C-alpha cells in the first residue's frame, strides 16, 4: 500500500494516556474467541454487549507513557487512512446531493470510554452510533492473524477501518436507525434479525469496497496483493470460518455477519462498481 501526505483524519489517539486498564478478566478459551468474533465488525448499537458484564477491566494503572517510534508510525498510518475516508466519502455524498460528516477515529489500548459503554481491546474494532466514533485497539490485528488465520498487512487495517466507516455511512443514511427500530419492535424472531444483521454487515463490506475503488482512483494507493489481503481478512471473519474454528461445525441460521464467500462477494461488488447505489443488500438478501 502506498502512503500519501494526507493527514488530519479526525483521530483521537488515546494510547499511552493512562486511560487504559490492566489485563482483562474474560472467560477464557473459546468464550473469548466467540465474544471477540461477535463484536468484531458489529453493526448498530453495541452497548448491549459492551455493558453486559461479560468482560470487565481488572484495574486502571493510571500511568502515562511515551509512544514508541513504531506506535507513532501506526498513528500516522491510521490518520492517513482516516483522511482518505473523509475525502472519498465527502465526494461520494456530494455526487448524490448530500453532505458528509466524518466520524472520529479513536485509537486506544486496553480500555477506554465510549457512548456505547466501555471499549475493550478483546472486542476488536467497532463503530458506536451514539457518539459516531470508530474505536480501534491495534493489538486486535495480531489476534486477527493468530486466531482467525488472516494475513495482516497495512491494507488489512485500511479495510477494517473502511468497514467501520461503512457503518457510520449507514448511520448517516438512516439504515442503522431502521435496523435498530426493527430489533426493538420485538416483532421479529432471532433468526429473522440475524438475517437483517447479515445484510447490515455485508453492506458495510460493500461500502468498504466502494471506498477502496474510489480512493485508489484518486490517490493510486493500491499495490499488488492489497485487495487480496482485504479479501483474506473478510473471509477470515466470515461466520462459517469463525464457527468452524470455535465449535467445529456451522449453523447458518445463527449467522450475523455473513459467510466468508458472501463477505468476499459484497466487498468485491463494491470495489468493481464503485457505486454506492449498487449496495442494497437488504432487498437482495431478505426476499
Automatic annotation (TrEMBL):
Basic and acidic residues bias (residue ranges): 1-16
Membrane topology field: Single-pass membrane protein
PANTHER family given in the database record: INNER MEMBRANE PROTEIN (PTHR30168:SF0), PUTATIVE MEMBRANE PROTEIN YPFJ (PTHR30168)
Keywords for the protein's UniProt record, in alphabetical order: Hydrolase, Membrane, Metalloprotease, Protease, Transmembrane, Transmembrane helix
Transmembrane segments: 20-42
Keyword presence, Zinc-finger: no
Annotated localization: Membrane
Keyword Plastid appears in the UniProt entry: no
Protein name as annotated: Metalloprotease
GO molecular function terms attached to this record: metallopeptidase activity
Disordered: region residues: 1-22
